[in-house]
Amino acid sequence: MGWNSWNIFAADIDEVKIKEIADAMVSTGMRDAGYKYLNLDDNWMRPYRENGRLVGDPDRFPGGITALADYVHGKGLKLGIYGCRGTATCMNVPESGSQGYEQVDADTWASWGIDYLKLDSCNAQLDLREQYELMRDCLLNTNRPIVYSICCWYFVGEWMIDAGNLWRTTSDIQDNFDVITRIIDSNADLWPHAGPGHWNDPDMLEVGNGNCTYEEYKAHFSMWCIMAAPLIAGNDIRNMTRETLDILLNEEAIAIDQDPAGIQGQRIRDDRDHEVWVKPLGSENETEKAVALFNRGAGSAPMAVDWSEIGLSGSANVRDIWEHQDLGSYSASFSATVPSHGIFL
Ligand code: GLA
């Protein structure tokens, strides 16, 4: 869990802004809710290397990245950084790619106190697997624990599970409900590959960026939790509405996402726009389950789940994770009216 600069700021990042984000991660309660990684995305580096090494852009990060890492660590947070396996990043910052500099860059990041690396895949000609495995080995050589996030937009093979801690499974997210649902579809069938230490990554959150409705953002966040996805916020957390805070800080939804068993939920029913998803909690056979009734359609709809579909029998207690309310005991099934583009969790 954490925050990343790309979805809201894209290229426009600097030290002042990032320190304010670090402050906000603490003051809003995000850090304490579990959002620990503050991740710089593309364009933190100056164009062209200095003596073969990457350096922070001196205009936008005059204090240097080590000082920034110290600041971030001082807040009880961890600092993530962005790199690229090719010759330049996806924004084409000259000489910013790690190809041919893998160990130098890993050592540089470790010496700065970096805790997380997102390694992108632009301007790359060499073998994808070899390059990602090489950087894994270079990170291990530093002896610093660094989360390794592979960003090549697709799950391309089982080797990724041994190479990375997470890997992007889709093209870039946008603050748009159609794109979000397309991303859910791309990520859904990859559930067998997810588990503690190795996660499918359907990309960073768009919650709070303004282009979707409250119901849509609730559905987006709930689905990331059902899919045990990394929760990397992507909004300007210095200015959040009550609704955005209620979503990002919903402890019960977060607990579903972070359940120690780390099972990625599955779509068990797909009636066109009306889907039922289930994520076992605790272990595959526990009788506590997270269930989502997800309405992708244009109108509100009555939706139901039978206990037999989710491996339960007899009666079960139901809790509404958005209303934070126990709804009592239900025998055999549960139904609710779910708003358009909305979810019952
Ligand atoms: C790619 C990645 C994005 C972002 C940009 C930065 O498109 O998929 O998440 O990191 O590069 O240029």
State the end-to-end distance. Answer: 20 Å
How confident overall, as mean pLDDT?
A: 98
Proportion of residues in extended strands:
15-25%
Order of SSEs: EHHHEHEHEHEHEHEHEHHEEEEEEEE
Spans of 5+ residues with little confidence (pLDDT < 50)?
none
Residues in helices, as a percent range: 25-40%
Q: How would you write the strand order of the largest sheet?
A: 7-6-5-4-3-2-1-8
Shape: globular
Bound molecules: alpha-D-galactopyranose
Number of H/I helices: 11
Largest sheet: 8 strands, parallel
Structural class from helices and strands?
A: alpha/beta
Radius of gyration: 21 Å
Strand element count: 16
Question: Concise description?
Answer:
The chain has helices at residues 6-9, 15-27, 30-33, 65-74, 102-112, 128-141, 159-163, 177-188, 214-226, 242-248, 251-257; strands at 2-4, 37-39, 78-84, 116-120, 147-150, 166-168, 199-201, 232-233, 266-271, 274-280, 289-295, 301-306, 315-320, 325-331, 333-338, 342-344.
